Amino acid sequence: MAHQASPFDDPSNPFQDPTITSALNSNNQESSFALEQDPLHNDHRHNSNNDNDNFTSFHQYPDNTQDPFSSAHTQKTLVNSQEQQEIVSTSNANGDRSNGDLSAREEALLQKERELAEREAHLEERHRPHANNFPPCFPIMYLDITTEIPLNHQSTVWWIYREWLWFEVTLVWNFVACLCLLFSHPDSVTSAPTDLGISLTEMFTHTLASFFLWYRPAYNAYMKEVSLYYTMYFIFNGFHILYTIYKAVGIPNTGGAGLILVITLFTDGYIVTGIIALLAAICWIGMGCLAIYLYKKTYDHYKAAGHTFKEAKDDAYGRISRSSTARDTAISMAWNSRR
Predict the structure, then answer these.
(1) How far apart are CA 268 and CA 281, in angstroms?
(2) With 60 as the cut, is the pLDDT of residue 77 above it?
(3) What is the pLDDT of residues 220-236, one digit of tens each?
(4) CB under 8 Å to 157, separation ≥6 — which residues?
(5) Number of domains forming the structure of the chain
(6) Rounded mean pLDDT, 131-159
(7) Which intervals carry biased composition (Basic and acidic residues) (predicted)?
């Protein structure tokens, strides 16, 4: 019986191309076992001339005879495609999650921008008027606690303002007590003229000094939350507290109607003058206690807000460097030192 030629035996058949055949079989190589004699055993056999020793070893070789078009190949291809789809779906899920995070951040930024815009609009509604309103008798500046100070600090600033007003009333009453002492005092009191002159001077100088050295810095500190203003308040209000205690003691020739003068007046029988001096001493003591309380409260807020002395020092250096007067003074001093 004659052998019938197969159409795939044609050398021009593209399926007989070794390149295509190896490409089709490379994706579905599976391991198979083949029998092979151990060459070491063969050498041993030749050396011992023992023909009965016929040992065979097993080696694993890839089986390239599997049909790439079989059902097993199709199933494996489907499994691979499903794994790729799972990887793609996982990456898409991660991408969706990251897109969700970006959307949430974008929404948070937009919300913050809207809040800032509303706050700015609210501040514009409560904008600071151009007209000065303080002091009422002769306005030279603008002060408005309800407008410029945050709501949670308005009570503290109001009490600091009342402390300053109490200080002014005490200075005036201290002058009245020294004036009464000048016209009605025992012979043991020889400092009445000196006390009157000092109390009159302090009534004007200490009014301005207290306003610009510790009340105004406290006002700006709570309004702007700047460490430099807090530091100024702590320094000068600390001197103010010591000055209040000094006046409350009532040492002669210091201009203060304090406890020493009150005891002397009551001892010598000057009751009316002694009562006036006693009221002045009570004002000094009461104002000193209020000053200490507000000082402590402001210091607690200063520490809670995270302000430091280094921050105040850096702010002071920055303001000095931005000041044209300080800059010109430094240049002139440097120029003079070179000469």
Answers:
(1) 18
(2) no
(3) 999 999 999 999 999 99
(4) 145, 149, 218, 219, 222
(5) 1
(6) 89
(7) 39-48
